[in-house]
Specification:
Blueprint lengths: L3 E5 L2 E6 L2 H24 L8 H8 L4 H9 L3 H8 L3 H9 L6 H11 L12
């Protein structure tokens, strides 16, 4: 390895190395960073969802419906789990009614997601 040390005030301050060596070092650092990110992700307890759930919400589906369908449960099953009716779940999903904080907590628990993910844009 060929390198040049540049000193300032008698102490090493900089190292000049050939570009190919820098590219190898840079690639190695990037690989290690990627590996650390993957390990952190795999060790995370946060839930992840398929792109289809996100796409459905972005395409206008109510988050309750998108997550309910992702979990493979009917409106009646969800209603039963939270002590409500299928008609009420339908109204929530259509935007006719809006779920308050307590209801979103119950829904989030039943759907195994954070309640905040169920907030629909009211605009």
């Amino acid at each position: 390895m060929k390198h040049q040390v540049i000193s300032r005030d008698g102490k090493p301050a900089f190292v000049v190395i050939p570009i190919e060596e820098w590219r190898q070092i840079s690639a190695t650092l990037e690989d290690r960073s990627d590996t650390a990110a993957v390990r952190a992700f795999l060790g995370s307890t946060q839930a992840t969802f398929p792109d289809a759930v996100v796409k459905a919400i972005l395409d206008g589906a109510h988050p309750i419906r998108a997550f309910r369908e992702y979990r493979g449960i009917t409106q009646a099953e969800l209603a039963s789990q939270i002590g409500s009716s299928a008609a009420y779940i339908s109204q929530l999903e259509r935007g006719v009614r809006h779920a308050g904080y307590r209801l979103r907590k119950k829904l989030g628990s039943a759907l195994k997601i954070e309640a905040g993910l169920l907030e629909a844009d009211r605009s």
